[in-house]
Amino acid sequence: MTPPQRQRRSPQEDPPPQPAQDGKEDERPNPERLYVVAGADGNRADLDLVTLIVASVEDPPHSATPEQAALLRLCAAPLSVAELSAYLSLPFGVVTVLLTDMLAAELVQARAPIVRKALPDRSLLEAVMHGLQRL
């Protein structure tokens, strides 16, 4: 069996037109915008990537920034800080600063993730094993 041959473009062909970028120069986040969103003080609560955040209020207050309002809408059901960071396309540090302000204003609650035991109880495993052997 012969592999398919690649077709080369001749140099006379024009490259495909690029879509208009609507004034956007780059897709990278603007660091100045992140500074404005996070604020100058940058205080942070002790939040982990897996800390669950849930909203305490249904509607965002009028004084909430757009990012805080988006966080409140997302946190109707518990979400981890890592998920919030990904959904908002904001760095983890910026999200933690936003959540720190929201925790201080009691707009959200932080919950520790559910920690499971490293190993299940041996007697339970033996009981399940004996039950399966009897079948």
Automatic annotation (TrEMBL):
Pfam families attached to this UniProt entry: DUF742
Stretches with biased composition (Basic and acidic residues): 22-31
Annotated protein name in UniProt: DUF742 domain-containing protein
Classification of source organism: Bacteria, Bacillati, Actinomycetota, Actinomycetes, Kitasatosporales
Domain of life of the organism encoding this protein: Bacteria
Region called Disordered, residue ranges: 1-31
